[in-house]
Design a protein that fits this description.
Order of helices and strands: EHEHEHEHHE
CATH topology: Rossmann fold
Largest sheet: 5 strands, parallel
Number of helices: 5
Strand content: 15-25%
Helix content: 40-55%
Strand order of the largest sheet: 3-2-1-4-5
Distance between the termini: 21 Å
CATH superfamily: HUPs
Radius of gyration: 14 Å
Structural class: alpha/beta
Length: about 140
């Protein structure tokens, strides 16, 4: 099995990663951590890449602390629209489950709809949504 965990800098995605890590151990699964850098018109700069790498590294450390094998964790940074990119990567990488939190860091969430909601509406993969108050 392969799990895709979209990661942003929120506690919600870190919590979803913990849930996914425990499931990965139980089901002997590989994990793909994905951080999508939204292009705001100025393009991606070095500091945005470094920030994305730091976010993914901290979540990888959480997964290793749970007991996940580092060799089975892949970290990917992609440019693009978050919901579209998440669904595209899930399809391209033959992902079995997308595991994500219900809220992230987007100021336009109320206007545009959440990333999670858009992934749920467009993905043909199983999506496990971890509620914000879930404690594992």
């Amino acid at each position: 099995m392969k799990f895709l965990i979209p990661i942003d800098e929120s506690d919600y995605s870190a919590n979803a990663a913990k849930v996914a890590g425990k499931m990965a151990l139980e089901y002997d699964s590989d994990i793909l951590l994905l951080h999508v850098v939204t292009d705001t018109g100025v393009g991606r700069k070095k500091w945005r890449n470094k920030g994305a790498e730091n976010i993914l590294s901290s979540v990888r450390d959480i997964l290793k602390d749970i007991g996940c094998d580092e060799k089975r964790i892949e970290c990917v940074i992609k440019d693009g629209n978050a919901p579209e990119t998440i669904v595209d990567v899930a399809n391209q990488r033959d992902i079995d489950k997308i595991i994500m939190g219900t809220q992230g860091k987007t100021g336009l969430k109320k206007i545009m709809g959440s990333v999670t909601e858009k992934v749920l509406q467009t993905s043909n993969k199983l999506v496990l949504v971890v509620p914000p108050k879930y404690k594992n």
